[in-house]
Amino acid sequence: MFDNPDEDRVEEDRADRPLKPALLNGFRRRCPNCGSGPVLKGYLTVRARCCVCGEELQHARADDAPAYLTILLVGHLMAPFLHVVFVAFRPPPMVLATIFCTACVALSLYLLPRLKGMVVAFQWARRMHGF
């Protein structure tokens, strides 16, 4: 009979937020809400709130997910490449180990904060863990 504006606001708050833009912002290590402010302070510490839009980010609980995803991606990217390089060029074992160990560490260090940003953005978009 009568429309209650508070009920509309509650339903709107419960609705899922757009996932794809949030994940892209997370990969860029930006706030999933505004896309401008940094989501991390330092290398892996999640900010309490966005310094641009004020979105609270302290509720994020990424735990071990970014590390697992990093290991999964680096392993799946480097293993076939290692096989192709070994079969095609037959480098000495120490050269191969040095190059691929360095590449694995570099790729892991590059991906880890970006995947953490994506995990935080996924939780924000799905309203998980207090968002």
Automatic annotation (TrEMBL):
Pfam families: DUF983 (PF06170)
Transmembrane in keyword set: yes
Keyword annotations from UniProtKB, A to Z: Membrane, Transmembrane, Transmembrane helix
Chain ranges passing through the membrane: 67-89, 95-112
InterPro entries for this protein: DUF983
Domain of life: Bacteria
Protein name: Uncharacterized protein (DUF983 family)
